Every structure is written in structure tokens, then in C-alpha cells.
């Protein structure tokens, strides 16, 4: 089964007619790729089911790769449409002896392809079914959890390197399930991204973070900032800029007190669109932070285009500062680059006093990590740092 990743956003940006045209063009691409005995059909929404015989020990991987590459050639009305897909494979008889069972297992593999980062393929394995059943139950519960006390934000402090004063916090989602207890935040985000909930979850986090920073400002901490992580899917949403504007107005918050973090890899998914979206957000007065800096494929080229106010050095470089001369050189270069572009530089993942000392000596402006403080509830944050 093939699940297109971007059609919902194409519908939002260009209208449902464009989305329908993409679906038709993809179907034609699939028919051209398949052998004569292959079949392709619409499974529903933006999903297709593909059936074809495999000879001998042949695998589906080469065809899966060709299908994903072909999606990049989709054009509608003379416009190149950036379309990616997640593709799951189930084989007869190894993965089922009926059409219905094969389709179910192929869809399960498709969900795992999405988990692997989208624009890829996966072949079904038995362990996937257990995870899929658990995820489905958790997804149903996550819908119910929004707006209840189950979902909260915890805040990890960020301190100024030159004074040890708290300069703000990063907001991190927490879900305490009534039966299973704490659900890892990575799993919450994965469920939301895979099932079309990221806009809803993202808006809730943004609103709650702004509400909290408003409370802290009223308590005398007008210099604190709160940073919120944006996923690549949120960057694709045409409503994002207006959502940010409305949340700021609703909470009567000075825009500069909010920082939105976006990873390099999220930007490189569709660089032109992401840059345009981030520039519109920056025009509101909101800070833009490039997270995990140093891990993207085109760091320097992207950085000069982005309206960033700060960069956060990836923890992979920070953790080895005490042992690796190469990482010391890398961090020193990132700090120099950031300062040359009038950006603040944050070293995250500080877990030892030695790492902290190195980061301070190398000129980082802000520090974040367990050595400085773990994520805590808003009440605990105020008690510890207020």
C-alpha cells in the first residue's frame, strides 16, 4: 500500500482540485511503472493498493524505490508538486493467505515507513502488528486527552552562560496516560504526525506555552522566553502564521518572548516553502531557532537564508567536548559563525560540569541540559527558578 504524505497540505494551499489532480497523476505514474499483470487501485483518501506477482526470489524493494522516485515527477497545471509517499509491502503467503490480511499487513508496514521518516518503504514483520494495535489504542486515547489534565507541558531551563541566570525555558509535551502512565513524548509526536493530529497537538502546545509565559511575566519575569518545537508537518500548514498571530493576541504576549524551534532537516524537506513560512513568522516579531544545528545536509547554505535569531548546537557535538579535539573545533566554528550572523548560540545536552566549562569558554551564549536542570512542571519551574 502507498500512502501519500503531502496531499492534505496541497489541498490546503492550492485547493481540493489540485489534490485530486495529484491523485490522478500519481495513479498514472503507478500504471506506467507496473508490469502488465500488475494492478493498482484507490484504497481511500490518499492511499493506493498495488498488487503484482513476484518471480522466484525477487523482492519488492527495487520497485518500491522506483515508485517513490516517480512521485517527485508529479506535475499539475504546469506546476511541480512536491509529493512524497510511505510504502508498505506484504508478501503472499509469508504475510497472509487472504487479500484482506495482506492489505492490513501492508498498511501496518506503511505506518512503520512513516515512522522511519516518510518517503521510504518497509516490509511487514510480525512485531509490527503488536506495535500497531498498541498505537491504535493510544491514538484513540490521545484524542480524548486533549484539553484534559492528562496532557501537560514541562519546562527545561535555559541559562545565560555569562551570569548563570535563567533566560527562559523549552516547552516539552508530557502525557500521563490513566492506565499506562507516562507516554514518551517522542511517541506522542509520532502518533500525532502519522495520524493527522499534528496541527491540533501543535496548536495546543503553542497556546499553553504562551499562556504560561504570560503568567511568568505577570509574576515579574518579563525577560524570560519560552521556546516551542515546530515539526516539519506544522511548517507545511498554511494556517501556521495566523495560528501564531492569534495565540499571541489571545495571551497578550509580546512576540519576542516566544521562540519557535525548527530542525535543519525539517527545513530541508521543502526549503523554499519553509523559508517563506519562517520569514512570515519572524515578521510578527517571534524568534526563530535552528535546532540540532550541524546535522543538516546544507547547514551554511540554509542558514544565510533563514530569519533565525539563534542556533542550537546539536548535542552530538556537545557530549564529546571533553574528549574530542575535533568537536571542540566544530563547536568553536559554529559559535563564530552564529555570532558573525548576529545570532545567539545555545549549547544543549549539557550533562557534565566539564561540558559546561567547555561551552562557556568557547563562547556559547546560553546553556541547556540536565546538568543545569531537568524538565519540570510549570509550578516546579517557578519554585526552583522564580
TrEMBL record:
It holds the Pfam family EAL. One of its GO terms (molecular function) is cyclic-guanylate-specific phosphodiesterase activity. CDD domains: EAL (cd01948), GGDEF (cd01949). InterPro entries: Cyclic-di-GMP_PDE-like, EAL_dom, EAL_sf, GGDEF_dom, Nucleotide_cyclase, Rev_trsase/Diguanyl_cyclase. Residues 135-386 form the EAL domain. Residues 1-126 form the GGDEF domain. NCBIfam families: GGDEF. This is Bifunctional diguanylate cyclase/phosphodiesterase. It comes from Stenotrophomonas nitritireducens.
